[in-house]
Amino acid sequence: MIxxxxxxxxxxxxxxxxxxxxxxxxxxxxxxxxIARVETHLALRRFQKRLRKANKRYEKELKLAGSLQANLIPxxxxxxPGFQLSFVLRSARETSGDFYDFFPLNSGHFGILVxxxxxxxxxxxxxxxxxxxxxxxxxxxxxxxxxxxLKT
Length: 152
Prior knowledge:
two-stranded parallel ribbon; 152 residues; two-stranded antiparallel sheet; alpha+beta
């Protein structure tokens, strides 16, 4: 709402803004100024709508990324005689760099990996996925000597 009023005291203007006005033009006014202010507010409204739409798309993509990332995390630990493992991962945001994994080594041994990529969000999640994939691949290549893949 744009107010056009002959009242030009500051308290009148503040009252106009307090009841929802986005602009306040005092009389006498210039036609060109009113048109310029209306066009500015229309442009702001268009940008606001675009921003809301982009935010909704971003939220949807983050949820999808979080779901995909959750699928990389093991749901249960492998059976390890003599051990009982429990674990929970609660990310601070939809996606993060936090993860854990189990991978088989030779002779019935398992590697247990707990890691945290610095920061939160999509970038950390991508690094997490890359790091997890790299470590799993190296564990498969060096099942006899897990210390070797940790050196690479």
